[in-house]
User: Fold these one by one.
Assistant:
Number 1:
Amino acid sequence: MDVTVGCPECAQPVADDEPYCAACGGDVRPRRGGTADGVAAATGPRAAPCPRCGEPVPGEYCAHCGLRRDDGTDRVETDLGAIGGVSDRGLVHARNEDAMALGLRLPAGAAAVLCDGVSTVRTPELAARAAVEAALDVLLAEADGPPGDGSNAATRRAAVTGERLVREAVGTAAAAVAALGETGDRDAPSCTLVCARVDYPAGVDGAPLITVGWVGDSRAYWLADPGGAEPSQLLTTDHSWATVMIESGRLDRATALADRRAHAITRWLGQGGEAEPEVLSWRPEGPGVLLLCSDGLWNYLPGAAELAAALPPPELGVSPVLIARHLTELALDAGGRDNITVVVIPVPAAGDRRDERPSPASRR
């Protein structure tokens, strides 16, 4: 099946190496959005008034009453049409230390990065923001080499490219985080990371090649449509104390997860951390949703089956950003004790992919 998508303006097919539509001149370059948009919206030339006392707030806190100013990241929603995400401060934390960056590679792919700042260090939100932006730039790169002969060659090429770019993206993100602190400073900004790249190789029947990479305990799930050919499943394995105890056989699962050290991470981006990602690639056998999330969601809904059951039925045609909003609200209703970030990438069945055109509101 031809997986070329249409121009977002006129729906005419566009070549994957052209920045503009030949029919109408519409811009078909990669689109992106995420936490950086929220920060930019809140940092204009004039200080916003304090919502409590009305005085200007040029810094993080109001000098008059002490209220912390929203820096634009307390609630961020990104809608790129075929992919969407929500990042929320939650109900307890003073600031949102999560960050996300999403992008579409017209005509045949998507990418997303999600980072969770390590709250025990200084300014972890800066680490998360730097990491997602640096990683997304790499993940939105074009595939290597010519299309190849046949679907098998295209899929192999996409798999090699996907894994290489994911590893390169994590390395680039790690370097961006490292630049925020001095060598040996154990209080320097740090964060976890999970990212994904979705490719629709040329000449393939529509089934995508999904590549996921992660460092830490931010997660990726495959949530299959009801009656799907394969079950919903957690794709990542937490780099955490509990995982080490369980996999080594030193503690059973229930005991390890009940320990106060259960969520202590063993890999992270930043000073003293191991930034080597785990990476996996595969082609799903049926339709579903690729979900990236921070522990602000999975602490409440840790099981893949639970998350899949919480999704609106596919036949309702709910947009990705609305699904992300729905899952975020579930976490808030459950207590919202941590920052919550959710990214949703719907994946159609092989041969069923329709033109994916970003909504006009997503154009930046």
Number 2:
Amino acid sequence: MSKKILKMGMDEAGRGSLIGPMIVAGVILNESSEQALREAGVTDSKKLKRSAREKLFEKIESMADWYGTVAVMPEEIDRENLNKLTMEAFRKLACMALSDGFIPNMVIADAVGRDNRTINACIQLKIFMEKKADSKYTVVGAASIIAKVTRDREIEKIREQYGLVGSGYPGDRHTIDWLMKNSNALPPSVIRHKWKSRSNPYYSKS
């Protein structure tokens, strides 16, 4: 019996948000599952409507050999470089998969910022980063969907608990207005205080 070829894809969601965590996801697929998910429409989550992402999330959950997520919280983002945090999350996911007994033949991640290179994870497992990998590779698209749906669910918790209005992104006027009105009611753990943006009312260099 031939050995299964396994690919691992990784991507993030919420990188540019003012509110909530960045979620980084990793997914491992075999060739058969990758083909089936490609035919089902798995691609970059940004190209899909929310209802489609939710349905595909369930398919990925049921068909993936393995998947996992890492939440990077606002406090961490305030302390560290975001690109560094993303790559550390990629490494952590690769090590999580390895500790669960999965050794993928290839690991591909969507490029971090303008970075487009290879990084090493545990036992020198190489992670190849490529621009627009979430559109080019089904396995990275799958990770994109897992990350986006997981983050959407975290944002819904914030919406329900604190009455968040808007998307949580700095380009959303509704979010900025809501932040300005609710500045005294929000815990530090919800907001990225040092996310540099002229529209971020919380931004502080200190």
Number 3:
Amino acid sequence: MGALQMWFVLSGLVISAPAIESQSADQARIAISRASALAIVPRIQRADYEGDRAALKRLYGDLAPVPQDDKLASRVLYWRGFALWRRAFNGFNDNADPKELEEDMQQAVIEFDGSSAKDPEFVDAKIAAGSCLSNLAFLNRKDPAGSQELLGRAIQVLKQAQAAAPDNPRLLWVLGPNRWYAPPEYGGSQEQAMALYQKGLDSVRAHKEDTSDPLQPTWGEPELLMNLAWSNWKRTKPDLKAADEYAQTALKLVPYWHYVRDILIPQIHAAQAAAH
């Protein structure tokens, strides 16, 4: 939690009133515009799929300074957090330094919390924060007390999201791994995790979300397909045919998805070859 604590310490620095007024005026003049944000967000999503961690870090910085308008600021903060969240996820695949993954996740939580503060009804910011907190709990598993504190925060924020939007496909995507790894006495099972993924997939396909605002998150279908592919491969009794079909369907939606194309599908094909 060092980086997170450091951020709070730095945010408490005493600055004279004239300096604050000057800084706010400067930020109002140079804050990122909606048009600039609209151009950057698709690049963030593509960099995520391509596994381009350097680009994700750069694009995170490009989405600044945050505008003063609460609604726009909430979405800009969300996509800033998203860039770091996915930079960390791609880092897991690249065996990146766990400390670096932790720092990305911690800063992502700060961005998502800021997004929620600007728009308390924006459920996707809570969903993303819950995912980051769950992963931080995993990264801090050698510190049981710290890990439990992080997990408690994750559960709280995900319960809030679940109460507000139980069928949100991105929520179901985030809840799935928690259900997969949870002990049976805590309601966990492979079958329940896969049922959540399928429910999310059905939801995103049956109810195409409002896309009138491109800054509103609508991702989810490829990710749910990917998790169903991985789950069918990793389940106690693997269904490698289903795993390959889900992965190929995900790749059709995102042909440049590095993880699915270059990592997951070859792993599934290797498992199929070993089974014969």
